[in-house]
Design brief:
The complex is a heterodimer. Chain A is of the alpha+beta class. Chain A has a domain of about 70 residues. Helix content of chain A is about 30%, strand content about 30%. Chain A has three helices and five strands. Chain A has a five-stranded antiparallel sheet. In chain A, a hairpin with a 5-residue loop joins strand 1 and strand 2. Chain A is globular, with a radius of gyration of 14 Å. Chain B is α+β, with helices and mostly antiparallel strands. Chain B has four domains: about 100 residues, Alpha-Beta Complex (Sulfite Reductase Hemoprotein, domain 2); about 160 residues, Sulfite Reductase Hemoprotein, domain 1; about 90 residues, Sulfite Reductase Hemoprotein, domain 2, CATH 3.90.480.20; about 140 residues, Sulfite Reductase Hemoprotein, domain 1 (2-Layer Sandwich). A five-stranded antiparallel sheet of chain B has the order 1-2-5-4-13. In chain B, strands 3-14-15-12-11 form a five-stranded antiparallel sheet. In chain B, a hairpin with a 5-residue loop joins strand 8 and strand 9. The longest helix of chain B has 23 residues. The chains are: A alpha+beta, B alpha+beta. At the A-B interface, helix 2 of A face helix 15 of B. Bound molecules: iron/sulfur cluster. Iron/sulfur cluster binds next to loops of chain B.
């Protein structure tokens, strides 16, 4: 259950590729910074309903809400370390996962 | 090495075809996610933190060069160029895509491999002593037994839906390199007073959230009765093992709750009621399996190799590697070499496709085509001529595979932890890397001597922390990673579970604490006394003081 004052984004894994993905405005994105942010419990509930429908449509698997805070640039950052790691990739292989592209574009 | 017969090959091929069909039906929408999930798990395909993960079984940790090369090709073609060798002698790929998995399974089938029963509540990959067939003190090679059990347990209709997963390990030696005491069933091949070969049977060991050391169930079961006896053990567990709570469903809880004597009584009753002849494999089949593991054609060589002696004299780095990573072979002139997958600061158990290929080449050229995966996440070349060791070492060194640390403090076992694993509560690999760097100096490591550090990223204990001389368990405390140290664990024939040292520490404090613990040991050890022996003599409290110095 989403805490009433907390913000959330919806994450899942892409069914075919397995990558961690985030629900953005136009569909699923591999970049969590584009994710749609739910600012109320009702908005979070709406994300969950979308997640269940997307799972039934076999686009993604294992959808769940991730609690985020909003950084200075207005972008969502997961609160738990586990979820932050999921937006980046293995901390022991910076050449792999999402962080690889972010690094290449000097965004990290 | 075992070779699939027509039946084995067809069985694996059928499974590949079946899974290909299941993936297609899932993508087409005729199999829902709920229906597909158990099917993918039955083929070793998990969903992890960043991606899918495919766990491939390496039966009793034994590989030929051809198989190792196939593992390398898969890593390169379908994954990100590397694989992770696990504490269950398996390999895991961290980035496969669902649509590639049927092709991966097809490539595995072509080299007589698969991912069947690497997940789920069934009998998992049978593990065995990595020195099987070459250890000097072996009563009998455990691989034919392990292979027999692999065939018996593969898709065994009665044991495909057990209360929980089930792990069996086999050794043929008194020195236990297979950790039989922390398996659901542990088998040791022994000789009885009459000189007959049979099995000493241990039951109810395990790690995870409720670690237990196995209890001896029977001192001797004749070879011919093995399958019937195991069948009886499995039946009693299948019937009485708890299904109401998955944390209490392993056989260790049953044995603990009813006691080993009551479990033994029920097993004996079941065993007596069984018709052993209807279960035992026929003698012809056993002979067929054993023939595959007949000793290779060894050359007649002197016990001491002059070439080896000379190379050691001229190259101290090589001499150090031989002293630490090479063990005596049962045949004069041969040696068992451990290839460390623990370069200083590296990821324990990871190997690149190129490294795997080099290992395959070396095995083919210098190692009678044999490779083994160890439960310490290293690779063993079990059949190397002493004369060839120097050449082998130079090749290994060219690919960062010649780290001189087998059994030493930087030979750290680590599960993937939060860097990859969806169940993790903390990272384990970075802690391993930090300890490895701290103790990276070769002289210092050898001065410290045998010391096994084992790290798990959650209570499931895949990193075997309960049986680490120093164990480290990663937890999450208030959103932060926190590490708990245990001391005095031992996976060997002197099996013991580690005792908790104190409250949770940060990763940095953990490394500092280990340094203090090592100082306590060095300051107090008797000549020739290992860390774990000193721990047993000095007692837990002496080491506990070390913690206060840091926290
Ligand atoms: S011990 Fe936990 S974190 Fe480590 S691999 Fe096992 S389940 Fe994952």
């Amino acid at each position: 259950m989403a805490r009433s004052e907390a913000f959330h984004i919806l994450t899942a894994n892409d069914l075919l590729a397995g990558d961690a993905v985030f629900l953005a405005e136009g569909g699923w994105s591999r970049d969590h910074r584009l994710a749609r942010v739910a600012r109320t419990p009702d908005e979070a509930k709406a994300l969950e309903i979308t997640g269940a429908a997307e799972k039934a449509a076999r686009r993604i698997v294992d959808p769940y809400l991730v609690e985020v805070s909003i950084d200075a640039n207005g972008l969502p950052v997961p609160v738990r370390y586990r979820e932050r790691l999921r937006t980046l990739g293995p901390s022991v292989r910076l050449d792999l996962g999402k962080q690889a592209a972010l690094r290449a574009n000097s965004l990290l | 090495m075992y070779c699939y017969d027509e039946f084995d090959q067809q069985f694996v091929q059928d499974r590949v075809n079946q899974f290909r069909g299941q993936v297609e039906r899932h993508l087409a929408g005729t199999l829902s996610e709920e229906e597909f999930r158990p099917l993918r798990l039955m083929n070793g395909l998990y969903l992890q933190l960043h991606a899918y993960m495919l766990r491939v079984a390496i039966p009793y940790g034994t590989l030929s060069a051809r198989q190792m090369r196939a593992l390398a090709d898969i890593a390169e073609t379908y994954d990100r160029g590397y694989g992770h060798f696990t504490t269950r002698q398996n390999i895991q790929y961290n980035w496969p895509r669902l649509y590639d998995v049927p092709d991966i399974l097809q490539e595995l089938a072509a080299v007589e491999m698969h991912a069947i029963q690497t997940s789920g509540n069934c009998i998992r990959n049978i593990t065995a002593d990595p020195f099987s067939g070459v250890a000097a003190d072996e009563v009998e090679d455990p691989r034919p037994t392990a292979e027999l059990l692999r065939q018996w347990s593969s898709l065994h209709p009665e044991f495909s839906f057990l209360p929980r997963k089930f792990k069996i390990a086999v050794t043929g030696c008194q020195d236990d390199r297979a950790a039989i005491a922390v398996h659901d069933i542990g088998l040791r091949i022994v000789r009885n007073e009459a000189g007959d070969i049979g099995y000493e049977i241990w039951a109810g060991g395990g790690q995870g959230r409720t670690p237990m050391i196995a209890k001896k169930l029977r001192a001797f079961v004749p070879k011919s009765a093995l399958l019937a006896y195991l069948e009886a053990m499995m039946r009693v567990y299948n019937l009485y093992g708890r299904r109401d709570n998955k944390y209490k469903a392993r056989i260790k809880i049953l044995v603990h709750e009813i006691g080993i004597d009551e479990y033994a009584r029920r097993v004996e009753k079941e065993f007596t009621a069984l018709d052993p002849n209807s279960i035992a494999a026929d003698a012809e089949e056993i002979a067929r399996i054993e023939a595959y593991f007949a000793p290779p054609a060894y050359d007649r060589l002197p016990a001491r190799s002059a070439a080896l002696d000379n190379a050691k004299k001229s190259d101290p780095a090589f001499a150090a590697w031989v002293a630490v990573n090479v063990r005596a072979h049962k045949v004069p002139g041969y040696a068992i070499a451990t290839v460390s997958l623990k370069p200083i600061g590296g990821v324990p158990g990871d190997a690149t496709a190129d490294q795997m290929r080099l290992l395959a080449d070396i095995a083919e050229r210098y190692g009678l085509d044999e490779l083994r995966v160890t439960i310490e996440q290293n690779i063993v070349l079990p059949q190397v001529k002493q004369d060839d060791l120097y050449a082998v070492w130079k090749l290994l060194a060219s690919a960062y595979l010649a780290t001189t640390n087998a059994g030493l403090i930087t030979d750290i076992v680590s599960c993937p932890g939060l860097d990859y694993c969806a169940l993790a509560t903390a990272r384990s690999i970075p802690v391993a890397q930090a300890i490895s760097r701290r103790f990276g100096d070769p002289e210092r490591q050898r001065e410290i001597g045998p010391l096994a550090i084992k790290i798990s990223g959650c209570i499931n204990a895949c990193g075997h922390h309960h049986v680490g001389h120093i164990g480290i368990l990663g937890l999450e405390k208030a959103g932060e990673e926190s590490y708990q140290i245990t001391l005095g664990g031992d996976p060997s024939e002197n099996a013991a579970l580690g005792e908790r040292l104190g409250p949770g520490l940060t990763a940095e404090q953990t490394v500092d604490t280990i340094e203090r613990l090592v100082e306590v040991y060095l300051a107090n050890r008797l000549s020739g006394e290992t860390f774990v022996a000193a721990y047993r003599r000095l007692g837990h409290d002496r080491f506990k003081e070390a913690l206060h110095a840091v926290a």
